[in-house]
Amino acid sequence: MEETELTKKIDAYLDDNWDAMVEDIATLVRIPSFQEDDKKADGAPFGPGPKAALTAALKMAEDMGFESHDAEGYIGFADFPGKSDTQIGIIGHMDVVPAGPGWTFEPYDVTRKDGYLMGRGTLDDKGPSVMALHAMKFWKEQGAEFPYTIRFLFGANEESGMADVAYYHEHYDDPAFLFTPDAEFPVCYGEKGGYDGTLASKPIAECARVVAEFEGGAATNAVPGIAHAVVKADAAQLPAAERITVTEAGPGLARIEAAGKGAHASTPDEGINAIGLIVDYLLENGLCGADERAFFELDQKLLNHTDGSGVGIKSADEYFGPLTVIGGTIKLEGDRFVQTLDSRFPTSITADEITERLRQLADEIGGTFENTLLMEPFLVKPDSPVIQALLNAYNEATGEDAKPFTMGGGTYAREFKSGASFGPEKPWIKDPEWVGMMHGPDEGVSEDLLKQSFKIYALTIDKLMGLDLK
For the chain, which terminal residue's Cβ has fewer other Cβ atoms within 10 angstroms, N or C? Predict the structure, then answer.
C-alpha cells in the first residue's frame, strides 16, 4: 500500500472509531486490577482484579475477530494468524497499581477533560495497549495477509514482579521480536542491568554507639527524600546545617532530620540523598564511635558518588553511558546498620565485579555485603532492522528525526530474547498541572498522544512485516 494511501486509511479509521476506542479504554479502566494476594485463586493467581481485566481484554480481542487464549489467569494472548508461525509480539499489561489517595477524578473510570483521558491505567498501560490492539484490528479490516503471525500478549502482573511472563516462558516460545507500548518514544533499544544489594556494618554494641536510631528511605530503587537519626548528644550544642533540622529527642538525645529530594534510582542526579545528608552531618560533627565511623565513611563514599567512583565501580559503555548507584534505605537492625543500594549498570562491567568490589570494602570494616537482585543488561543494537523499523514508523508519523535511546529502567522488553519498549510517553511535552503521572493520583494521558500512538503502531506493524525475521 502506498504511503499516502496508508496514512489516509489510518486517519479514516481514527475518525470512524475514536469514540469506540476511548470506550474500550474505559472498559478496562473501570476494573480495579491491582494485585491482591489474599484473594488469589485457581485461574486468578494475582487476585480477582487482574483476572477480570485480563478476561475483558481477551473478550475485546475476540470481538475484533482474533483468536484468544487465557493461560490460567497468568497471562493471555490474541493471535492474528499469518502465513507462518513466526511471531511478531506486542505486550501490554492489564494490571495497575492501586489508586491511592489524592484523586480529584474518579480513578476507576475514564473522565474526558480538555483533550485528556483521566483514570488509573489510561497511561499505564491500558490506554496504550488498546491503541496497539486497534492497530492490529486496523490491518485485519484491510484484509491483510501477513507473512508472520501477530501475537498480542496481555500481562497481568507487570506491576508486581512479572510472574506473568515467567509463566509464559515456561509454556511458550518467544516471538521473533516484540515491543511493548509501556515506556517512552521514540524507541528504547536497551535497558541497563539492574543490581540491588545490602551493605551491613559489623555488630556494634549499644554501649559503643553514639547513634541510637537511624532510618531513611522507603524503597531500594529511589533516592530518599527524607531521613532521620537519633544521637546521644545535646541538641542545643549541635550546629545548624543546610537541609538539616535538629531537635531534642529526650534527655541527652538529639533528633537529626534531613530533607533531601526524592528521585528514581535510574536518574539519581535529579535527587538529593537524605541519608547522605545525615551521614555527612554525623561525620562532620563527630557523632559516631570508631566502628560507626568506619561504616559511615564507607557509606559516604557510596552515597555521595552516584557514578560509583566512590566505591570503585565507575564504568560506562557506548550504548548505556555511565553506571549509576544510589543508597535507597537505611535502618538499624539489631546491632548492625544496614544500607540498601540500587545500581543500573552498563555492559562494560559485570555483576560479579560489582559484588567482588563491594564485598572487599565491607570486609575491610568487618561488615558484610550481599547481592539481593540481579538483572543483566538488555540490548538490541540500534542499527538492527527491527529497531530501525520502529524508529522509521515513529519518524514517519511525527515528521521528526528522532534517535533511539537506552534507559536505566526496566520493562517487559528485557524479559524476551528480542524486544524494545516503544512509547507512548513524550516526557519533553508538558501536560497541564492537573494531569498526574502514572502511579500517582489523577493519572491521565492526552487524546492526541494516543491517536498519534495508534498511527505509529499501525505503521510499525507494516514495516515489521517487511523484514526477514526467520
Answer: C
| Cell, residue 3 | 504511503
What is the torsion angle, in degrees rounded to the nearest 10, for the CA atoms of residue 282, residue 287, residue 292 and residue 294?
60
Q: Which positions ≥6 away from 329 have C-beta within 8 Å?
A: 216, 217, 218, 219, 220, 224, 275, 339, 340
Provide the angle, in degrees to the nearest 10, between the axes of the packed helices 126-141 and 3-29: 140
Q: Looking only at Cα atoms, what is the longest distance across the chain? A: 81
Around 216, how many Cα atoms within 13 Å sit in the side-chain half-sphere? 35
Query: Is there a contact between 424 and 188 (Cβ–Cβ < 8 Å)?
Result: no
Residue 228: CB atoms within 10 A of its CB come to: 18
- Full-model pTM: 0.84
Tally of CA atoms within 13 A in the half-sphere of 74 that contains its CB: 14
pLDDT for the residue numbered 372: 97
CB 375 within 8 A of CB 410: yes
Given this model, what pLDDT does residue 1 score? 64
Distance between CA atoms of 397 and 2, rounded to whole angstroms? Answer: 14
> What's the confidence (pLDDT) of residue 218?
86
Q: How far apart are CA 211 and CA 201, in angstroms?
A: 13
Whether the CA torsion 87, 92, 95, 97 is positive or negative: it is positive
User: What is the pLDDT, as a whole number, of residue 409?
Assistant: 81
Task: Count the neighbouring beta carbons within 10 Å of the beta carbon of residue 261.
Answer: 14
Residue 397 to residue 456: CA distance in whole angstroms: 6
pLDDT in tens, 77-87: 999 999 999 99
What gap in Å lies between CA 388 and CA 385, rounded to an integer?
5
The SS3 of residue 54 is helix
> Cell numbers of 255, please?
533528633
> How far is it, in rounded angstroms, from Cα 134 to Cα 14?
10
- Three-state SS at 195: strand
Q: What is the pLDDT of residue 4?
A: 87
List the chain residues with pLDDT less than 70: 1-2
pLDDT for residue 198? 98
Residue type, position 88, single letter = I
